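Q: Convert this sequence to structure tokens.
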Amino acid sequence: PTEIGQMASLEYFEVEDNSITGTIPSEVGLLSNLREFDVDYNLVAGTIPSEFGLLTSLRNIEVLRNNIVGSVPQGICENRDINGGSLTWLATDCISEVVCDCCTRCCNDLTEC
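A:
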């Protein structure tokens, strides 16, 4: 829900394997203290919001095994640790669903990751 943007002090958002549906709200970009975002193994659909690129404290993003599509926003890649940023772990389904030039872990089907 969009109300997540009101949780200004939130540092860890981990809800893996909970059958969560819907999309990732762009308001996540308001969570300036967020360090981890993990929604693996849910039913989340849509794209990864470009607002994730604004989160300079973010260290981990995990969106594996969902219905995420599109490209990982460039701002996220620019925040990777290899570029001087804080992001050290970026995991998604990369082969056909998501285009990711900077992921640290790419999964291609239900058996290989």
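The two ends are 29 Å apart (CA to CA).
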